Amino acid sequence: MRSSALASQRRVEDKPRRVANPSPLREGGRPPSGRGAWRSQLPAHPSARGDERRAYPVYVSRFEAWLVDSGIGVGVLQFPEGTRTATDAARAVGCEVGQIVKSLVFVAAGAPVVALVSGVNRLDEQRLASVAGEPVTKADAETARQATGYAIGGVPPFGHATEVPVFMDRDLFKHRVVWAAAGRPDSVFEIAPERLRELSGAVVADLRAT
Questions:
Q1: Model's pTM, two decimal places?
Q2: Domain of 193: which CATH number?
Q3: Which of 46, 78, 110 lies at the terminal end of a domain, its last residue?
Q4: Which residue, 37, 55, 78, sits at the end of a domain?
Q5: Is there a domain that residue 210 lies in?
Q6: Fewest Cβ atoms closer than 10 Å to its Cβ: which of 31, 35, 102, 146?
Q7: Mind listing the pLDDT tens digit for each residue in 35-64?
Q8: One domain for residues 33 and 60
């Protein structure tokens, strides 16, 4: 009954929901200031077993569960209207399109790579090839999912299913904070560019097409 009620509540919701674990970086697990609120928590994630079970947020995605396990203190906002494109995400968040991080999956020198590109920029494949190897082609949906664990439109910049090299657009450092996909096409999270580079292990490069 409670699960049904929660699902019904989510369908009629028209405001963003903050989806984050009470981080050890925030004393007492209090949410930061700003829009949204912490999701309530279940006793244990459905896939957990025995004594290894731990609390996960309601409606948790794989990326959100990864955030809980990592304890890095990143909060996720969910927008029912969707954040699939950079323009959609900027409109939902209320930020500049340039602050949106596009996580683009390519195949470079025969292996998948992820390029983190400012929402206002178009990626130059030749510039990516100069740092990732050539030839460079856009990954298809299945390749992207197998490499990252996520569908195109919701690929996060880190926490991937495999060890995927990441390359980061230098223009993202023009902003104090940026917003990146959180594993599905209706959720994003806020992060400082330098912290994003650190967590993703990205190589910073000039990737913008001129």
A1: 0.73
A2: 3.90.960.10
A3: 78
A4: 78
A5: no
A6: 35
A7: 333 332 323 333 334 444 343 344 457 888
A8: yes
